[in-house]
Structures are given as structure tokens and as C-alpha cells.
Write a structure and sequence with these properties.
14 strands; 12% helix; 3-stranded antiparallel beta sheet; 201 residues; 4 helices; oxidoreductase activity, acting on the CH-NH group of donors, NAD or NADP as acceptor; globular; mainly beta; Flavin_Rdtase-like_dom; Pnp Oxidase, Chain A; 7-stranded antiparallel beta sheet
Length: 201
């Protein structure tokens, strides 16, 4: 099968959502200028550079009560900071609860019964029980083609690692089993890993 996106795919659901998988989930916590907090998952998320460490996530839907699409992007535009919380398999249900299209006054931490902790390098909360959290300083927001498509880039200014996830000096993902997004309503979980050496190593 071949199709041009502008012509449509003719399938019951958009297959593009299932082609680039699995995708890590960035559980983005932000705080607006008046102190209200927001927590929302984004599956268009990844690390993009080592030195200095940098990450990105993209928001692709709009809300009537906020500019720049979603609460997360609007808050980051106002304050210049955000925190990326890594999602473990055991947190799948509370993560999903925070994905709803809630009004900006709603506090997803409270709604999901999640303990929060203050970040060290930025004025923002993080998910206290997350396997890892990345405190980030905004570097740029890029408006992409499409009505509500924005990509947020940030430099990592602080890293939290849960102590039980460190095994012999390695941050071991098998201690918490990362959750990842697939297509449609599907997710997957990392339960095994293997290593490959690059040519010349």
C-alpha cells in the first residue's frame, strides 16, 4: 500500500501513528506564573544531544483556554522551564489519567494522587516517585506546520535518578520497565535488553 497524506489513507485509523514506534513518553511537569501546576504525557519526545544534554517534545493539539496549544507549552513559554519525568510500567494508569483535556485550573498531580517534589535548579515540581526526572531550561519553541503543532527544546540543568534504579553504577531500565507509546491506543513495556558493539570497538 502507498498513500499520500494529503489524499488520506482510507483506513479506519491513521497508520502514521503506528509507524514510528515505540516512542518514549515524556511526562512533562510545568508551573505557570501564578503557581498553578500541570502534568501531562507526550509521546513525541526524545533526547536530542549529549553535550550539553538536551531534550525535546512536541505538542500537537489545541485548547480553547490556552495559547500555543496545550497548558504545558503555554506554561513553558511563560516561565522558561519544565521537567521531564520518565514513566515506569507501574505508573501507566496514573500517567493515562493525566492525559485528559482538562481545564488549566486543574492540578493533575492532585487528581492522580501523585506525590510531588520541588526541583533543584528550576522553579517547578517533579513526580517524586518517577525513575528519573530531567530539569530543563527552555532553549526554543518552534512552531511547526499545522494549526497547533509546537516543538519545545530544553537544556537539561538537573538530573534525578531513583536510587533503586542504579545497579553497579548503571541506570538499569529493567529495574522499572519503561512505558512506551505505540500506535492507536496501544502501549508497550521494556522487559528485556541486549547489547551491540559498534564497528571498531
Amino acid at each position: 500500500m502507498f498513500y499520500r497524506p494529503e489524499d488520506g489513507h482510507g483506513l479506519p485509523h491513521n497508520p502514521f501513528n503506528a509507524v514510528v514506534t515505540p516512542r518514549p513518553i515524556g511526562w512533562i511537569s510545568t508551573r505557570c506564573k501564578d503557581g498553578r501546576e500541570n502534568l501531562a504525557p507526550y509521546s513525541f519526545f526524545n533526547a536530542v544531544a549529549y553535550v550539553p544534554p538536551q531534550v525535546m517534545f512536541a505538542s500537537t493539539s489545541a485548547k480553547d483556554d490556552r495559547h500555543m496549544g496545550k497548558d504545558s507549552v503555554a506554561n513553558i513559554d511563560e516561565t522558561g522551564v519544565f521537567c521531564v519525568n520518565i514513566v515506569s510500567y507501574e505508573m501507566r494508569d496514573v500517567m493515562n489519567l493525566t492525559s485528559g483535556n482538562y481545564h488549566g485550573d486543574e492540578d493533575e498531580f492532585a487528581m492522580a494522587g501523585l506525590e510531588r517534589a520541588e526541583c533543584e535548579t528550576i522553579a517547578c515540581s517533579r513526580v517524586a516517585g518517577a525513575p528519573a526526572s530531567l530539569e530543563c531550561k527552555l532553549t526554543q519553541i518552534v512552531k511547526l506546520p499545522g494549526e497547533a503543532n509546537y516543538t519545545v527544546f530544553g537544556e537539561v540543568t538537573g538530573v534525578h535518578l531513583r536510587d533503586d534504579c542504579l545497579v553497579d553504577g548503571i541506570f538499569d531500565v529493567l529495574t522499572f520497565n519503561p512505558l512506551a507509546r505505540m500506535g492507536y491506543r496501544d502501549y508497550t513495556v521494556v522487559r528485556e535488553k541486549f547489547s551491540l558493539k559498534r564497528p571498531g570497538e
